[in-house]
Amino acid sequence: MNGNFSLNDIKPGQKGTVKSLLSDGSIRRRLLDIGLIEGTQVECLGRSPSGDPTAFLIRGAVIAIRCEDCRNILLQA
Amino acid sequence: MGLTSASVGIKAVDSGLKIKKQNNNDFIVAIAGNPNVGKSTLFNNLTGMNQHTGNWPGKTVANAQGYCKTSNYGYVLVDIPGTYSLMAHSAEEEVARNFICFGRPDATVVVCDATCLERNLNLVLQTIEISNKTIVCVNLLDEAKRKKISIDLKALSDILGVPVVGTIARKKKTLDNLMHQLDCLVDGRTLTKPHVIEYEETIENAISVLEPAIVNAVGDTVSPRWLALKLLDYDQSLIKEINNYFEFDLLSEKGVSEALKQAQNILSQNGFDKERFKDSIVASIVRTAEQTAKQVVMQKGDGYNSVDRRIDRILTSKWMGYPVMLLMLAVIFWITITGANYPSQILSDILFKGQQLLSDLFIKAGAPDWLHGALVLGVYRVLAWVVSVMLPPMAIFFPLFTLLEDVGYLPRVAYNLDRPFKKCKACGKQALSMCMGFGCNAAGVVGCRIIDSPRERLIAILTNNFVPCNGRFPAMITIITMFFIGSVGMFDSVLSALALTLVIMLGIAVTFIMSRFLSETLLKGVPSSFTLELPPYRRPQVIKVIIRSVFDRTLFVLGRAVAVAAPAGLIIWLMANITVGDLSILNHCAYFLDPFARLLGMDGVILMAFILGFPANEIVVPIIIMAYMAQGSIVELDNIVQMKQLFVENGWTWITAANVILFSLLHWPCSTTVLTVHKETGSLKWTAVSILLPTLTGMVVCFLFTQIARLFV
Question: Which residue, A71, B13, B260, B606, is most buried by CB atoms nearer than 10 A?
Fold first, then answer.
């Protein structure tokens, strides 16, 4: 860990606020499309049976995101 | 299981769409919206068509069109794939964007989910940026009410500057207002003034430089502000579409190219590179949506409701997730097997009495023997078998599976299985296309369009056939019941269901292995990123689902099987009755194939049946029966005991039976699927792989199984 506080660091039931996206390319576009811009509130809802992906409540919709991608979604500490 | 003639036919594969107007003055209306907001339901209720619906994002993968009428006008409605945005990241998004932008619709209806309006506004804002002939349709008001969400439609309309109507697409009546608004919009009674999204100052400056040049060059038939944004964004594929639309290269126009350069300078001087430009645009749209939603949505409660949370906690839990999935599959099979047994028997009784009547009729009429043979013993008998064996399981399985789909369970399957798929360097959404494969592999292959990464999509296409479609598992059920379970009692049908579940699990295991294999060999690469939406659970429309799936899917699939079975019955009869030398053609073929088939633990007749079953897997078992009967002594065959006797007389053992099941699971796809793979991949090479991969797998598995099994006998 490089000290970045990311979407991977919140547990089911916890909330966080998006600081910035490190991902690029098509996944960046997709994450922006679902509304993950700076200041967006995200709540972790639960994990898939095998621990990955994780489901988040984002702007009223439940979206599953893989942990590799969560790593690139930084939250405000 | 998007299974209608439109989704399985060649039509489904064409992304190009030819609009069919009934009258010249008909209007064309695009039905757009986020995935899974009830577009297809709305479309069906307006047009009376049966576009497939189900509670998961991405069912509609191609444009579909239908017709509807108001007292004033006729409309051609085009149901386009659901998208979150018009910035085209995937094939289906491109289909949607191109139609709204360049399909020249007279109006666009953007369907929104009232329970999740803010996210939907993203698409609305992008659409009104392109077209001022837009109506916003806030759907699922009933769901919203249940979640204690209310929406001020009037205020929303005032902010957006376009008509807004509230609907419950399941209830036809609520759609009247939508059609009324559509009438007013197309004939100009309603004037719109779409809300203009404000971007950062630098971007606004760049637009103001470029916009006039565009107006000069091409006028304002396509929103010049939007064109300016897209030129600045320099989206290659879109610029190509734009040029196609105007039929000349917009950038070759001197005024435009100079203005573009100037505008780009403004951007770069202010530190806007390509990435920052795109981010800023998206962020502005998202913020506008957020502010708009804040003003019109009143929410008491927490949106994602607690019931959904509780269900998800069970269905996707660490310990229960996988067992529940398998249990559900087994229960569906059990209901199918138990429920199908009795009607199957009745049907075959009736149909074979019918054969007797027909035979009598032919004899009374003095028809020649060969005519009676070809039509009654050939065509009719194979038809009777297909109907009595296929119809009951299909009529039970389809509705059950559709219910599961309607409730919203399928995306959870994809969610649960994503990790194993990722381990095989594929994508969890492949689970969705596999679920469609249960209905029909051709539909499953088309369904692979929901997968964004071309590599992963190809893997899903090539392995779809490892899920046995509805044409295959009734035969599996029959053989399992015959050779492995015995008579069909209450407990035995549980065993049958478990055995069938095991077979399916084997198919799934092979899918994983082959996905991994392809990722290591022909389709090297790493799993790409993905996001998957888990929609809220919805109360299924039980009656509607049953009626729909029986009439649309069951009868459609049965019709296709019958259409193939009739000529196949004729061919088989001819082959069995025309002799060359002292053997019938059938025997020649069977003898020819026999040595090879023996290696796989089957016989020449079985292998030939699989080959003749290429047009439709449903006819494999009937062909085997026909062929044995043509050679053998049994003439009457109206129940499963006699059928088993026939098979045993022809040398079947449990090893043969197991191999037939294995080979049915693992062999070449049917002709429709092969054609669909070719259309979807556009490549002969990948079509060949889609045939060879399962065929070779099946041969190897059957060979090994036979050799090992014989050691124990």
Answer: B606
pLDDT band at B328 (very low <50, low <70, confident <90, very high): very high
Average pLDDT value for residue range B41-55: 76
Quick one: closest CA in A to B528, which residue? A27
Domain boundary among B154, B186, B218: B186
Q: What is the pLDDT of residues B607-621, one digit of tens each?
A: 999 998 888 888 888
**How many contacts does A have with B, using Cβ atoms within 8 A?**
126
Which residues of chain A lie closer than 8 angstroms to B535, CB-CB?
62
Taking Cα atoms as reference points, which of B51, B47, B39, B82 lies closest to residue B66? Answer: B47
Question: What range defines the domain where residue B219 resides?
Answer: 201-299
How does DSSP classify residue B571? H
CB contacts, 8 Å: A45 with chain B: 304, 309, 312
> In sequence order, what are the beta bridge partners of B157?
none
The Cα B61–Cα B669 span in angstroms is 21
ipTM here: 0.94
Give yes or no: residues B414 and B503 share one domain: yes
Total domains in chain B come to 3
Is residue B451 assigned to a domain? yes
CA distance, residue B115 to nearest chain A CA (Å): 8
- In A14-60, where does DSSP find H-type helix? 25-33
Which positions in chain A touch B313 (Cβ < 8 Å)?
46
Residue B311 lies in a domain: no
Task: Give the mean pLDDT of chain B.
Answer: 86
B contacts of A33 (beta carbons < 8 Å): 84-85, 87, 89, 122, 282
Q: Is B312 among the domain residues?
A: no
CA distance B226 to B106: 18
Q: Give me the CATH topology for the region A7-75.
A: SH3 type barrels. (2.30.30)
Band of pLDDT at residue B94, cut at 50, 70 and 90: confident
